């Protein structure tokens, strides 16, 4: 039996923040049943946004190229969106294509922006999605962000 993407949902902050690969349309109902109410799409292609809207998900399109780090402005938008959604009891799932590199980097960025150290954020990601953040440009961005928010 093939594993659906919903089974690849990984929790960072239970009932608040999750990571995952890009959900297929058939996964959206399962996501809703799992309590996810909001989705952040990191893909450069925003064609999934219409499906998210159609299926009742609050969403944020925050395109990050596969071989690039996010910007500080994107992290600010992400923090604002997640905090607003969580304030309204809307758990958020963040996805890129595979649910690792970009997703892990943005989730770690959120944790750092909310007060975690670089090491704490990396440990949290590694514990929940091993080897998600392994590219130098992602690690360097997170270190720079950590120094910036101190």
Description:
InterPro entries: Prot-tyrosine_phosphatase-like, PTP, Tyr_Pase_AS, Tyr_Pase_cat, Tyr_Pase_dom, TYR_PHOSPHATASE_DUAL_dom. GO terms for molecular function: hydrolase activity. It holds the Pfam family Tc-R-P. With about 150 residues, this protein is an alpha/beta fold. The chain has one domain (about 10-150): Protein-Tyrosine Phosphatase, Chain A, CATH 3.90.190.10. Helices cover about 45% and strands about 15% of the residues. It has helices at about 25-35, 50-55, 70-85, 100-115, 120-130, 135-150, and strands at about 10-15, 15-20, 40, 60, 90-95. The chain has a five-stranded mixed beta sheet with strand order 1-2-5-3-4. The mean pLDDT is about 95.
Quick take:
With 150 residues, the protein is α/β, with parallel strands linked by helices. It has helices at residues 25-33, 49-54, 72-87, 101-113, 118-128, 136-149, and strands at residues 10-13, 17-20, 38-41, 58-61, 92-95. Strand 3 (38-41), helix 2 and strand 4 (58-61) form a beta-alpha-beta unit.
Attribute tags:
Protein phosphatase; 150 residues; Protein-Tyrosine Phosphatase, Chain A; 6 helices
């Amino acid at each position: 039996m093939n594993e659906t993407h919903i089974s690849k949902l990984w929790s960072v902050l239970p009932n608040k923040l999750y990571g995952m690969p890009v959900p297929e349309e058939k996964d959206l109902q399962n996501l809703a049943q799992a309590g996810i109410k909001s989705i952040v799409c990191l893909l450069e292609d925003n064609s999934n946004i219409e499906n998210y809207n159609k299926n009742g998900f609050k969403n944020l399109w925050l395109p990050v190229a596969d071989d690039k780090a996010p910007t500080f402005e994107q992290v600010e938008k992400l923090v604002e969106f997640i905090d607003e959604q969580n304030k309204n009891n809307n758990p958020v799932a963040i996805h890129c294509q595979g649910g690792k590199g970009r997703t892990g980097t943005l989730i770690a960025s959120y944790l750092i922006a909310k007060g975690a150290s670089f090491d704490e954020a990396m440990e949290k990601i590694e514990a929940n999605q091993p080897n998600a953040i392994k590219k130098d440009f992602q690690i360097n961005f997170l270190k720079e962000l950590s120094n910036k928010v101190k």
